[in-house]
Amino acid sequence: MKFLLVEDDNTLYSTIARYLRRKFPGAAFERAESAHEAIDRLRNSATDVPFDLVVSDYNLLGTETGAHTLEWIRQYMTYLEPRFLFFSGNDNAGTHGVPFFPKSDFEALVQGITQALAR
User: Fold this and answer.
1) What is the pLDDT of residues 46-58, one digit of tens each?
2) pLDDT digits 0-9 by tens, 54-89
3) H/E element holding 53?
4) Residue 79 CA: distances (Å) to CA of 20, 32, 64, 73, 89
5) Is the Cβ–Cβ distance between 3 and 27 less than 8 Å?
6) Percent of the chain beyond pLDDT 90?
7) E strand or H helix at 68
8) For residue 113, which phi and psi values (nearest 5 degrees)?
9) Sign of torsion, CA 13 18 22 24?
10) Between 106-118 and 10-23, two packed helices, what is the crossing angle to 10 degrees?
11) Phi and psi torsions of 105, nearest 5°
12) What is the DSSP letter of 50?
């Protein structure tokens, strides 16, 4: 399994990745710090080993949001849309029709990932 985690905060990325590695042993994790970087990694994965799941922060630094990554997936990698999840510290973040999990609840995120992988 190969996951793309889109998170601009170094400490939070490390914490989430460490937690998910324990819950999904053997999974590979790649990080993108922005929607632009996530899209580049997704493009490159199309010719390499594709991602099985994308977990994206909604609020990223700058003007981009996780919604930019989701829009690109909907246009170019539709097979990944059912395996795209948002997580955010902002309870008011838009979900854009995909599952949303608060950053304060890692176990709920794990359950969401498990459900998305079953699709």
Assistant:
1) 777 789 999 999 8
2) 999 988 887 788 889 999 999 998 888 889 998 887
3) strand 53-57
4) 22, 20, 23, 8, 27
5) yes
6) 60
7) helix 66-76
8) -60, -45
9) positive
10) 60
11) -130, 80
12) P
Type of residue numbered 65? T
The Cα–Cα gap between 107 and 34 comes to 24
What domains can be seen in the chain, in order of their start residue? 2-118 (3.40.50.2300)
Task: Quote the percentage of the chain above a pLDDT of 70.
Answer: 93
Whole-number pLDDT of residue 93: 58
The partner residues of 65 in beta bridges, in order of sequence, read 59
pTM (global) more than 0.85: yes
